[in-house]
Every structure is written in structure tokens, then in C-alpha cells.
Queue: 3 jobs
Job 1
Amino acid sequence: MKIYVVSGLGADFKVLERLEFPGNCELIFIDWLIPEKNEPFHSYVERMAEKVDDSEPFCLLGYSFGGIMVQEINRLKPAQKVVIMGSIKSDKEKSKFIKTGEITKIPRILPVGMFNDKAANAYSVVRKLFDPKNPKILQYFKVRDPYYLKWSVEKVSEWKFEETPEVIQILGDKDIVFPIKYSKPDYVIKGGTHLFPATKYKEVSKILKEVFV
């Protein structure tokens, strides 16, 4: 069984590298693309979905913003199973912080320069949100194109989606990016921050081996 995997916003697959899957699974990673200028979200999703071969059965797995992306891809190319980690099933599960961005449109008006490598304040916020106790957090964030980062923050805040009941959701109970109190996940990782696929990989691997059988 092929599993197409999309990692988190700005993250490469290092954050997922310690996860274990059943032996019969073939992982295919879909890299983040750089959005074209003023590219509509649906057009971007279509480009991301091009790598998915739907001529045979497959599954989708997404982490964080990648969880949103695989649910959008599933609309175009339905999968046998969709699993999201550290992500949300619908816009109703957004935190108050993200909803504030949606209402005020602040992400849209932020200058691209705020998202460059020299924007130390932005990265201090990333540390605080994702896992304040993890000093190596920035090693997971490899896609640092400023336009991509700004565009992604906008799309997360603006995202509208009706929940698909079949989607399997795994959340950490200490995640402050997507707080568990707004969701009803299928699986809960005790003590898991937003980086739980990297820090709680044994627990997550056990779940993935149950799901992808």
C-alpha cells in the first residue's frame, strides 16, 4: 500500500523520520511547492496532488498544515484512508488565535519580509508555539521561502472545510497550535506538544501500525 505523506508548514520530513509503519507500506513524500504569485489555494492543491497516482489504491498522511493539505487532496483523489497528525478536521476546530487571524486578515497584510531568515522574532514565536522545551526545533523547518511561509499562514487562517468523519485524527494533549479542546481526536498522545511525531514517535508508530493494516 502506498502512503503519500505531506509534512508540516515549512517542515521537511526530518520531523517524521523516526516513525515506523507496517512492512507492506511504501511511503511517498510530497514536497511543499513554492506558491505562484497570487495563486488560488485550489490551484496549489491541484499541483500538490499531481504526484498522487490514483490508478491504484493509496492512503494519505499529513502532519500539521500537511494534514489540511491531504484532506484537500482527498477531495480531488479519494484515498482509502486519510490520517492527520497535529492537525484539524474542519475550520470549526481552529484555535481562537487562528480565528483572530481569519477575522482580522492580519496574516494577509503582514509584509513578506517578516518571514525571512533574519526575522528572529518570527522564529521565537515558532519555538514558543511548537515546542518551547525543544532546543533543536528549527532543524525541522527547512522550507524557508518567505513568500511560501506568508502564503501558508494566510491559508491556514482562511481555511474553510466541512469535517469528513472517516478522517483519522491524532493529536497531542499539550499542542497549543491546534489545542485538543477544540477537537475530538481518534487518538491522543499524552504529553505530546505539536512536535509529537518527533518526540513521541514510539507511541505514534504503534498507532500507525494499527491504522495502516
Job 2
Amino acid sequence: MAGLTSSTIGRKYAMALSAMFLLIFLILHLTTNLLSVLNKDAFNTASDFMGYNPFVQFLMQPILGFAVIFHFAMGFVLEIKNNKARPVKYAANNASVNSSWMSRNMIISGAVILAFLALHLYDFWLHEINYKYVEGIAPDAERFWPELHEKFADLWRVALYVISFVLLGLHLAHGFQSSFQSVGARHPKYTPVIKAFGKWYSILIPAGFILVAVFHFITQ
């Protein structure tokens, strides 16, 4: 790992791999959350399995936590090193023409998403830790849907989630394609497919999460 992150290319490669892992996680997470809109019992069953399965709790969850921390840490490190490498901006550089706003401000969207993750962990992960390990309450497979539903009773929380997922979509719009480029997945035949898939991914995934939040708010 130290060798992989000792150079700029290595850090970009490692960051891309962590991004791909998180892209897969987002699909799985959204799939589970959409069950709360489609079928209450199915959502409770899936959440109960995820919440008490040892493989998920004690292997996949720590790996996910490491991937999130690593991805954001590498992003901040790369941003700092890039800024140090070009302390004087070229006067002739027209940033709006040479690159998109999101590609120039990935660090900003990343910081906002990181702040949102802190709220998300407070809402759900800390609650689970307290429920299972602090208070030691007996498992209840019927509790998950009501707990999720209750979280979106307040308009301010729904608004924060919607704003965060819009920014996530913008972040993904650039990050999806960038992660594949960083691992060398560039080819005249496949790059257009990756771009098209990344575009739809960056729209549908955030839209799905927004749908879940709005659904639970309007059905209070």
C-alpha cells in the first residue's frame, strides 16, 4: 500500500480503485433503500439481514469504512499536491473552456459529501451501534422501516439529503469516467460506452436516493 501511494500516479490509481468499490456499494445501498418504497416487509427483511449478518457487519462494513476514508483522504492529498505543483496560475488559461466546473471543484463537492456522510452516520450508524451494543436491545426485524420513515419527517433533513445527492450526482458525473481513465481503461471503442454509462449512473443513483427521501416525507 505504501508503494502504491508513494507517487502521484500510484495515488490516482489507488483512489480510482476505491472509487470503483464505492460505485458498487452505492448500487447495493440504493437497491436496499428502494425496497422501502416498494415493499415494507422486503425492506425490513433485507435490513435485518444486513444489520445482523456477521460477514456484512464485521468484514464488509470495516472495508467500506476504510474505502470511504481512503478515497477522501487521497482526494485531499492529490488536490494539495496539485496546487503546490502549480502555485502560479497561467494568465492565459481559460478554465471554463479547458475543463468543466465540476472537474475543477471535485474537492468542494467531496467536502460537502463528506459532511453529509457525517450526518448520515449520525442518523443511522450511531443509532445502530447504540441499539445493538450500548443498550443491547433484542433484535426486532420490524423496526427498520419505521425508523427510516421517521428520519424523513422533517423538511430540513429532506432538503439536506436532496442537496447532498445533487452534489453527489455532479461529483459522479466527473468521477465515474475519471476513475476508469486512472486505471488505464481508455479505448476508442469502449470510452464512449463508459462515458454514457457514467452519465446515466450519475443521474439515476442520486435520483433514486432522492426518491426515497421524498417518498418518506410526503407519506408521513
Job 3
Amino acid sequence: MPRVSQDHLDARRRQILDGARACFARHGYEGATVRRLEEATGLSRGAIFHHFRDKESLFLALAEDDALRMADVVAEQGLVQVMRDLLSAPADREEEHAADWLGTRLEVSRRLRTDQDFRARWAERSEQLTKATRERLLRQREAGNLRDDVDVGVLTSFLELVLEGLVSHLAMGLPADDLEPVLDLVEETVRRHRRVH
């Protein structure tokens, strides 16, 4: 029997994650039945659960995948850039995909509030974004670009809280056309202000 290439396995995993993201966003965690996951991914339950142990593992992998993508942007450009990307829905993220991402993000928030086991499993995975934000802020402080009168942990929490608020705002379908100046203010808030003599 021929062995399946790693590229094929990676492509299949990506197909499952992309289909599952849309399914979870549209139907919520409970409503994303195996039949709906099969329809959304175009694959059988056997193919889906060959890659993921169960529905919760699939959902966590999806949320982790999103967190890792965001952590990569944070490491290079900061958490405010993640927020700007959400507002502009960049070319590599179709509008429907952005809506699915937001729906998944809200579903994560809901499950964190209502499911203690999920909260414990998610805590292990969600640290990447916080760590990337903190490390970026520390580098900015060392470069003299970050205000030094507020603890980096407080600034990290502040930026994460703004992100959560923005996600909620966008997920509710509220207008976002005028939010760029708000993000400018957020960015200005964490910057070091040099005194002019």
C-alpha cells in the first residue's frame, strides 16, 4: 500500500480545519454535528477523526491554529497590527473567512465561560499569543519605543482586552469604518513619549 506524503496529510488537515472553522462559526460548538462537519469539509467522519481524536480536539486545533497565526503577526508587527488586519480583512483572508474566524473566536469565549474542562485544555494553548505580545513589548521597551512607567504585564493585558473588545464589536456586525483612529490611540497609549526640551 503506497504511503501518503506529508504534503498530502498537511493539505487534508488544512481542508478539515478550514471546513470546520466555517461549520463551528455557523452552528456553534454543539450545533457542529459530525454530519455538518462532514458536509463542511467534504470528507467522511473517518477521514476527519483520523486527523483529530474528537470534536473538541478539532475545535482546539482550530483555535490554536488561529492563535499561532496571530502570534506570528504579533512577533513581527505587534498586537495592534493583528487588530488592523481584522479591520481591513486582508487579501489572504476572504470576508467570509474573517467572519468564520470571528465566529470561532466568540465560540472559544463562550466555551471558556461554560466548560471547565475546555478552559483547562485551552489555557495550555492560549499562552502563545500572550507570550508573543509580552516578548514584542519587552523588545520595544529595550529599543526605547515603549513607555516605561507601566509594567509590561499590564500593557499586555490592556492590548489583549482591546483585542477581545474589537472581536466582539466585529462579531456583532457593528460598523468598523471609524475604528482606525481608535487603534492609533491604543498604539499611542503604549508608546514612550519623549520630552521635548
